[in-house]
Amino acid sequence: MATIDYTQQIPNNVNLADDRVLQRALSAWQPNFLEWWREMGPEGSTLHDVYLRTAVSVDPAGWATFDHVKMPDYRWGIFLNPAQADRTIGFGDHAGEAAWQDVPGEHRANLRRIIVTQGDTEPASIEQQRHLGNTAPSLYDLRNLFQINVEEGRHLWAMVYLLHRYFGRDGREEADALLERRSGDQDNPRILGAFNERTPDWLAFFMFTYFTDRDGKFQLNALTESGFDPLARTTKFMLTEEAHHMFVGESGVSRVIQRTCDVMNQLGTDDARTLRNAGVIDLGTIQRYLNFHYSVTIDLFGADQSSNAATFYSAGLKGRYEEGKRTDDHRLRGDTYRVLEVQDGRLVEKDVPLLNALNEVLRDDFIKDSIAGVERWNKVIAKAGLPMRLTVPHKGFNRQIGALSGVRVSPTGEVVSEAHWQAHQDQWLASDADRAFVASLMGRVSAPGQFAHWIAPPAVGINRQPIDFEYVRFN
Ligand code: BYC
Ligand code: FE
Ligand code: FE
After folding, report:
1. What tens digit of pLDDT does each residue of 313-363 get?
2. Phi and psi of 285, rounded to 5°?
3. From residue 436, how far is each of 134, 198, 332, 430 by CA, in Å?
4. With bands split at pLDDT 50, 70 and 90, how would you rate the model's confidence at 2?
5. Cβ of residue 193 lying under 6 Å from some atom of ligand 1
6. Measured between alpha carbons, how far is 180 from 357 in angstroms, rounded to an integer?
7. Mean pLDDT across the stretch 199-207?
8. How many A from CA of 259 to the centre of ligand 1?
9. Which residues does 146 contact at the CB level (< 8 Å), separation at least 6?
């Protein structure tokens, strides 16, 4: 095996050059990662030169450098945000104690589970997005896809670092398993539901990066509160990259809406068939895609009542979103929270112990944040002078996890019969016909500065480059 110049090959701020044990573990894992990348990473892309941003340090001024690189040569680095001197745990039974620099024995299994679950989503998303490069609507979009893919790869590295560095032999086994599960595989699927769904087209991709990467934002924020300091610092740095993923989603959907509204005004129609014939995606289809991605994503927060969530919090492993800004006692014993429940076929509110409802608390924070962006999309429609609006569906709509998974709920929140659901689901969720139509629009646009007909160009380029910059060079 070729020896690795660690600082060169794996940029890091964890003293990798001096850590022989970690070097050994990583030098065994790295070739497997690269093999996985070639097999499951962006299809047919290994020779392209892509204008990528690479993290080479965590300094606010200098962490990002831009250059054309081939993705297999991307330097997946290991970065933790700088340590905060004398950091203490901010919540749970250990509140006020010094943050842990090592894994406390009694919390080892739970911490490993959280890290593995987090780590599993990263390669899963790359697998889900594997074919999208073939149908990118522009070089600008193609580059953004690849940027997200390499960064999700780095997020995998971030979790693998923790497993190798702090969890010994079982950590190494878990790190190997992260390269063995496959999104959507019958026998060995990814851990969480949304990460086994397909992301077959670019509207799905933009919805995924808007909604599902936002789950990343909220989960990672909760983990930045962790009493296990290396996890807190790692996730803090990951969040700087997450912002770009959500930007790609929000601006992507926004550009699709912009284009549709332009054509609606040109043709003076809101008729879906006419708009489809004109080669743009009607707002109804956009709403049904939104309904799908929103509902599978809110499932990612877990069951509304969860003893795991209570344990993770009380043990100091996983906090709430912006724990430090909250003014309660950060222990939450005796507090309650309102959740929805099904009683006699109806949704009713019920107070339950807050500690058990922490998944729901995080889900509600996510929902607020998601709605804000949907309102920004609505501004695009309003600005075009059109009356339609997009909305997020009811929280109970299309749920597979938690108390609401037992009932059929319409997008507006009525509990409906199975027969009613079956009769209406094609109006509520992206149907096979919707997906076939969107698929029919997909096709690679590879000339600099050109954009597919169904999407408006972005307002500005990347890193102050012009929009017609050659963001990807095909080789
Ligand atoms: N699908 O007690 P519960 C990201 C399981 S996204 C399938 O509620 P808990 C990214 C659950 O495992 C951020 N299964 O569970 C975004 C449990 O199984 P067992 C990812 C599910 O533990 C885009 C059972 O149901 N990070 O970074 O309280 C691109 C009972 O549930 C699902 C994290 O999630 C589901 N949706 O909560 C790239 C953070 N939901 O034990 C990347 C780490 C639940 O009965 N993970 N189950 O076999 C966690 O904090 C928790 O594991 C969860 C689940 C919040 C996910
Ligand atoms: Fe990620
Ligand atoms: Fe992400």
Report:
1. 999 999 999 999 999 999 999 999 999 999 988 999 999 999 999 999 999
2. -65, -40
3. 17, 14, 49, 10
4. very low
5. yes
6. 33
7. 98
8. 36
9. 42, 45, 48, 50, 52, 71, 133, 472
Task: Using alpha carbons only, give the angle 33, 40, 126 rounded to the nearest 5 degrees.
Answer: 90
How is residue 165 written in tokens?
Answer: 């560095």
Atom of ligand 1 nearest to the CA of 115: 43
- How remote is the CA of residue 152 from the centroid of ligand 2, in Å? 5
Distance (Å, rounded) from C-alpha 33 to C-alpha 113?
Answer: 21
Which is the closest atom of ligand 1 to the Cα of 402? 8
pLDDT tens digits for range 80-90: 999 999 999 99
**pLDDT tens digits for range 285-319:** 999 999 999 999 999 999 999 999 999 999 999 99
The pLDDT-based confidence of 6 (bands split at 50, 70, 90) is low
417's tokens: 């019969």
Please identify, by atom number, the ligand 1 atom nearest to the C-alpha of residue 304: 8
Q: Which residues have CB less than 5 Å away from ligand 3 (the ion)? A: 213, 216, 242, 245
Instruction: For ligand 1, say whether the CB of 401 is within 6 Å of any of its atoms.
Output: yes
How many other C-beta atoms lie within 10 A of the C-beta of residue 204?
A: 22
Retrieve residue 1's tokens: 């095996």
In this predicted structure, which of 69-73, 218-222, 249-253 has the lowest mean pLDDT? 69-73
Ligand 1 site, residue 219, Cβ cutoff 6 A = yes
Tokens 């969530």 belong to 309
Closest residue (by CA) to atom 2 of ligand 1? 306
420 Cα–ligand 1 center, Å: 30
Q: Are 255 and 249 in contact (CB under 8 A)?
A: no
> Residue 57 — very low, low, confident or very high, per pLDDT cuts 50/70/90?
confident
The token pair that represents 377 in the structure block: 């999309």
Mean predicted lDDT score pLDDT of the chain:
96
pLDDT given at position 10: 86
Q: Could you count the other beta carbons within 10 Å of the beta carbon of residue 69?
A: 18
Compute the distance between CA of residue 314 and CA of residue 330 in angstroms, rounded to an integer. 9
| Rounded Cα distance, 151 and 55, in Å | 9
Both structure tokens of 22: 């970690």
pTM over 0.85: yes
CB burial readout 264-290, b (16+ within 10 A) else e = beeeeebeeeebbebebbbbebbbbbb
Phi, psi of 409 (to 5 degrees): -125, 135
